[in-house]
C-alpha cells in the first residue's frame, strides 16, 4: 500500500501492519477534506466531556469554599497604610489565628476585634451535574446506568438492570 493523500508522505506500509478505524461517517465533502477518514469518536464528546469536568471542578470548589470567615480589626486601613512593625505584627497575629484555628480550633484575638463565620448552602448542584452527565451519555450513546454505574431511576425501574459484561 502506498499512501498518496495530500499532506501524507508516500511510504510503503505492509497490509499486515495497518488497521484502519474510520470513525463516524462524515458527509462526502467533509470526508474528502479529512483524507477519507471519518470523525473521531472522542471528538464528538470532547466539548461535553470538558463541560462535565469544568462543572464537577466548579461544584467541588463551591462546596470547599462554602464558608466565609471575616475578621474585623479596628483601624485596619491605618495599619496597612502605615506599614512597618505595626503591619508586620498584624500579619503575624493573623498567621497565629490561622494556625490555632487549624490545630486547636481556637480563635485568639483582641477584645475589640470581631470574628464571624458565614455558611452557604447550595441546592441543585446534583441536578446540574446530572444534566452534564446526561449530555455525555447522549453524546456517547451509552446509557447512564452503564456509563456511570448508576442504578436506574424513575418509574418501573425497581427490578430492572441492564446486563453487564463480566470477564472472569
UniProtKB/TrEMBL annotation:
Could you tell me the superkingdom of the organism this chain comes from? Bacteria
Q: Which residues are in the Anti-CBASS protein Acb1-like N-terminal domain?
A: 11-157
- InterPro entries of this UniProt entry? Acb1-like_N
Q: Which organism is it from?
A: Escherichia coli
The protein's name: Portal protein
